[in-house]
């Protein structure tokens, strides 16, 4: 799995951080997503898929290998 985020599209909702805090964080000043792990471990992958699915701005892309 390869994860990318588009910070330009991010609206700062934080749903990704709630779904997969091991993979996503937010910048303090504006809440924009920060990708912590572009290739998450197998145990995090379902949460990452959920985070991408619930992102209101569709700012998360998940590519399955």
TrEMBL record:
This is Ferredoxin. It comes from Streptomyces doudnae. Keywords: 3Fe-4S, Electron transport, Iron, Iron-sulfur, Metal-binding, Transport. Its cofactor is [3Fe-4S] cluster. Ferredoxins are iron-sulfur proteins that transfer electrons in a wide variety of metabolic reactions. Pfam families: Fer4_13. It comes from the Bacteria. GO terms for molecular function: 3 iron, 4 sulfur cluster binding; electron transfer activity; iron ion binding. Residues 1-29 form the 4Fe-4S ferredoxin-type domain. InterPro entries: 3Fe4S_ferredoxin, 4Fe4S_Fe-S-bd, Fe-S_cluster_ET. The keyword Metal-binding applies.
